[in-house]
Specification:
It contains 11 helices and 11 strands. By secondary structure, it is of the alpha/beta class. The strands form 4 sheets. The chain has a 4-stranded parallel beta sheet, sandwiched between helices. The structure holds thymidine-5'-diphosphate.
Length: 326
């Protein structure tokens, strides 16, 4: 999400960008390749390191806070980096923004609201109470609450966005859509958790980048905006679209043990962002978006290939552990 946003800023604005990234397993320098070095600088460091964060914030007009551990499955396995990066990292950014009076946009997820029952028509809004399910969403909810508190107590000029599930180029192969695409490209069967009937709302990463830039430039200070498409699909139906687009039979997948505490359905009402800031998603056809995403993964095996085996090995171990109950 961060590298796509930087690319969007480079293409559509005259701004210069300094990126602070720890370059954990989830990041890659190659995601920034081709960007003008005069306008885009990468600093390798930890968002929870106050010294480095303060030294960078001293020189910028605005902060867009993307840095987070973001994968639910990893948070169930090892919550520690989630608490450190998502909570302490956000606290560190907030204190730096407060020290320099810097405008902040905080990027978050709809998962802070918990989940909705399958089959209901309810959607979350900016006013929905937080009810997170996993260490990941719990730490994002904690981070969002810190931003709200700093905004109110210290008049920090902050906005927050909570988006639905994202897909598109440069997404790590641990996530649902790229995992299945790259499995198929490697000749391995896709893996569906449980019955595959969990529902997610899908947003193309370029539409997310446009939303974040719009809120940064024109959002009302102190406000939260939900970013979504209304395009809700069961996991199994997304997988069947991918299978069709990649010429595989529609039963070419394995069902594996379900994720513990697996959220049933996420759905959000993004009308505030649409009506007050005139944002609308441009990639509103999921099948077309998946098709171009599949093409991207076909053409960029050099980007995703090197980490793929390790991700599948880790998944394999956890999936076995869940299915034998140990
Ligand atoms: P994911 O991409 O991990 O995002 P999130 O947990 O934030 O929604 O997963 C999307 C959905 O796909 C979620 O319901 C879990 C499911 N899933 C699978 O069925 N198989 C997989 O291999 C993965 C990674 C996820």
């Amino acid at each position: 999400m961060g590298s796509n946003f930087v690319r969007h800023v480079m293409e559509t604005t005259p701004y210069r960008v300094t990126i602070l990234d720890k370059l954990t397993y989830a990041a890659s320098r190659a995601s920034l390749s081709g960007l003008e070095p005069e306008r885009c600088r990468l600093v390798v460091g930890d968002v929870a390191d106050a010294e480095v964060v303060h030294s960078l914030v001293a020189d910028v007009d605005a902060i867009v806070h993307f840095a987070a551990e973001s994968h639910n499955d990893n948070s169930l396995h090892e919550p520690d980096p989630f608490v450190r990066t998502n909570i302490l990292g956000t606290y560190t950014v907030l204190e730096a923004a407060r020290a320099y009076g810097t405008r902040l946009h905080h990027v978050s997820t709809d998962e802070v609201f918990g989940d909705l029952p399958l089959g209901s028509r309810a959607r979350f809004s900016e006013l929905s109470p937080f009810n997170p399910s996993s260490p990941y969403s719990g730490t994002k909810a904690g981070a969002d609450l810190l931003v709200r508190a700093w905004s109110r107590s210290f008049d920090l000029r902050a906005t927050i966005s909570n988006s639905c599930n994202i897909y598109g180029p440069f997404q790590h192969v641990e996530k649902f859509i790229p995992r299945q695409i790259t499995n198929i490209l490697r000749g391995t069967r896709p893996k569906v958790y449980g019955d595959g009937l969990n529902v997610r709302e899908w947003l193309h990463v370029e539409d997310h980048s446009r939303a974040v830039l719009t809120i940064l430039e024109r959002g009302t200070i102190g406000e939260t905006y939900l970013v979504g498409t209304g395009v809700e699909r069961e996991n199994i139906s997304v997988l069947r679209m991918i299978l069709k687009l990649m010429d595989r039979a529609d039963d070419y997948f394995d069902q594996v043990a379900d994720r513990p505490g697996h959220d049933a359905r996420y759905a959000i009402d993004s009308s505030k962002l649409r009506s007050t800031l005139q944002w609308t998603p441009q990639h509103d056809d999921l099948e077309a978006g998946l098709s171009s995403t599949i093409d991207w993964y076909r053409r960029n095996e050099s980007w995703w290939g090197p980490g793929k085996d390790a991700v599948e090995a880790a998944y394999g171990e956890r999936e076995n552990t869940r299915s034998d109950g140990s």
